[in-house]
Amino acid sequence: MLSYICLNWVLLVLFTGSTVSELVVIGEVGQDVTVPCHYSIQNRNDITSMCWGRDRCPKSKCSRPIIWTDGWRVTEQHSSRYQLKGDLQRGDVSLTIVNAREADSGIYCCRVELPGWFNDQLINHKVVVKKARISTASPHTYTSEQTSAPGSTSESSSTVTRTWPSVSASEAPQTASTPCSGSSDCLDVAANLQNTSVSLHIQQHPERGLYIGIGSCAALLLILILALFLT
């Protein structure tokens, strides 16, 4: 009966093995990714060897081992990108993957070799290394503002558009195509030109209408005197 119980216990241990936990670690390409692993140390005698492997933890040792330590220092190292940066003598055997790549994604096994049969501490980690996110920010429009010095008065610039009065064909100055037939015709043409010029000038500058009116009267009077003198 006792041998039967012992056989069942041995078979149970063989088939179940050590307790294995599994964690997920997510990192980005180009960054250092730390895969955690710790074991308890009460005194110097508890310091022990361990290994990291690129696969699930097997019944013993590590499959595809990448780094080994005897508990005091690193004894084997598959690549300089795999490092143990924690305090080994305090049980910190976390794996640091330097400058991670997408190819580093996969299952990692942390196996701490503890004394006793089937007593090793096993942790499987699923490492996922993703590409770094590229932020696509919407374009910004920057408006520069000009501020005046304290105490000064800033005035906004304005555009002043002046519209001059249009002149019809009947009001436009007419140029005689033929020479004057007589002194009276020349006087009429001169008077017409003078009146048209005065009218346009008054329309363009209404504020000066009074002065222009007086000047035009004097000019007309002078022309009449000259006409009388010529005749």
From TrEMBL:
Residues 164-181 have a biased composition (Polar residues). Residues 147-163 have a biased composition (Low complexity). Belongs to the immunoglobulin superfamily. TIM family. GO terms for cellular component: membrane. Its main location: membrane. The keyword Zinc-finger does not apply. Residues 1-21 form the signal peptide. It comes from Rhadina sibilatrix. The keyword Secreted does not apply. PANTHER family: T-CELL IMMUNOGLOBULIN AND MUCIN DOMAIN-CONTAINING PROTEIN 4 (PTHR46608). PROSITE patterns: IG_LIKE. Residues 139-181 are annotated as: Disordered. Coiled coil: none annotated. This is HAVR1 protein. SUPFAM superfamilies: Immunoglobulin. Keywords: Disulfide bond, Glycoprotein, Immunoglobulin domain, Membrane, Signal, Transmembrane, Transmembrane helix. It is a single-pass type I membrane protein. Pfam families: V-set. It comes from the Eukaryota. InterPro entries: Ig-like_dom, Ig-like_dom_sf, Ig-like_fold, Ig_sub, Ig_V-set. The chain crosses the membrane at residues 209-230. Gene3D superfamilies: Immunoglobulins. It is found in: Membrane. Residues 30-135 form the Ig-like domain.
